[in-house]
Amino acid sequence: MKRYNSTDPRILIKIAIAIITIIAVYSCVTLPQAPGPQLTPATLPSYSKGTTFVYSDGRWETVTDTSQGMVTWSDDRDNVSSGSPDFTYRPSKWESKTRSATRQFGPRTDLYSQSAATLWPLRTGNTANYSETGTWIERDGTDSSYQTSWSCAVEATERISVMAGDFDTYKIVCKRYYVSKSNKRSSLREAKTWNYAPEVGHYVLATTKYYYNRSLRRQELLAVLPSLNGLAAEARRQMELSFQKALEGKRSGQSVRWTNAKLQASVEIMPTKTFKTPDGNYSRRYVQKLTLPAGRRTYYGMAVRGSDGVWIIPRR
Q1: Among 183, 189, 76, which Cα is nearest to 132's?
Q2: What does the chain look like in DSSP terms, one character per residue?
Q3: Can you give the pTM of this predicted structure?
Q4: pLDDT for 74-89, tens place per residue?
């Protein structure tokens, strides 16, 4: 919770070093378990305005709106997007500093039989197919359109370990096929895999394999940060003190609690695992339980201890 938005150059340097060392040492591994964990069917994610998801490459995205059944996001590059809470669909609207895009989705016309258009509620063996058409508009006004199709499946359940913790997940794989306008033939262009953790309400690992000249992309969840907008300054201060006290002074499995009934706020911070990076710094996984006027939620993450003894969430 400390210095989430810090612009101190020294802190930013520490963050960059921390990200590199953590990724080098603690890359995600799949814990051997056969068969996979038993999970109840998972419903669509329910996102809360102000929640921020931080990933292993330092990138982050924040929920800025959740109205009319859509989720709007902003990220570290000032991109803004909105779409279904079903992340297997790309955003229906997207805008960056240089261009914008709109997308529409519908049934696949190249299939001989009808198929489901969504995987939710998630169950192993669920499949879905849909088409995607879109238009890109550059800042100079030029535009281009495309058509592509997707085939998705819930392949298995897995218990995996990422920076934010160990989680039981659904493994979702979606394959994208480019559809040629001239001959209507399709070719495989990419395969996206998500490990969705119902406990978190978000995917904890996402990888994309491209079938053209582009390298594999991989992101694992580093931390989920709660929105503290509208919370009294005293509550923010006490939550920050609890965060620092727990990570600096408590053993794994021990917690620090703070409660203020008047402010309708409480926090419990518990470190769960400790690592030491090659440069001698420490990092710790933690579980953070917050009770605010909007309700009670649990957040998972990993923090890094700087040379000044302050624990921070590394992000750009």
Answers
A1: 189
A2: -TTTT---HHHHHHHHHHHHHHHHH---EEPP-SSPPP-PPBPPP---TT-EEEETTS-EEEEEE--TT-EEEEETT--EEEE-S-TTSPPSEEE-SSEEEEEEEE--TT-SS---S--PSB-TT-EEEEEEEEEEEETTS-EEEEEEEEEEEEEEEEEEEETTEEEEEEEEEEEEEEE-TTT--EEEEEEEEEEEETTTTEEEEEEEEESSS---EEEEEEEEE---TT--HHHHHHHHHHHHHHHHH--TT--EEEEETTTTEEEEEEEEEEEE-TTS-EEEEEEEEEEETTEEEEEEEEEEE-TTS-EE----
A3: 0.87
A4: 999 999 999 999 999 9
Q: How far is residue 156's CA from residue 173's CA, in Å, rounded to a whole number?
A: 10
The amino acid occupying position 42 is A
Distance CA 141, CA 193 (A): 34
List, in order of start, the domains of the chain with CATH numbers: 1-30+227-316 (no CATH), 34-225 (2.40.360)
pLDDT per residue over 181-234, tens digit each?
Answer: 665 667 899 999 999 999 999 999 999 999 998 999 999 999 999 998 888 898
Sign of the torsion formed by the C-alpha atoms of 44, 46, 49 and 51: negative
